[in-house]
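re: the backbone from monday

yeah here it is again, tokenized this time
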């Protein structure tokens, strides 16, 4: 990854998704996989993906222990 380039969280998620063997629970927030539910438009669909990602991270925290997740923000 080019340090000078803007970080794209969805590219990082897609890479991790592939590296982990395409686990179903991660596919929910992979950008190139259609979202479940209605199309809310680009902004709201992205917010929904961030919420799904946070839900997954929180579940991992409960399952594996550790620190609380950092709040995800689109700002």
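seq for it, each position gets an aa:
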């Amino acid at each position: 990854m080019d340090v000078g380039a803007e970080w794209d969280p969805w590219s990082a998620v897609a890479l991790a998704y592939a590296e982990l063997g395409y686990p179903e629970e991660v596919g929910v927030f992979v950008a190139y996989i259609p979202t479940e539910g209605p199309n809310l438009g680009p902004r709201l669909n992205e917010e929904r993906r961030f919420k799904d990602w946070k839900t997954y991270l929180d579940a991992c925290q409960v399952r594996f222990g550790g620190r609380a997740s950092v709040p995800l923000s689109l700002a």
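The first helix runs from residue 9 to 19. Residues 9-64 form one domain.
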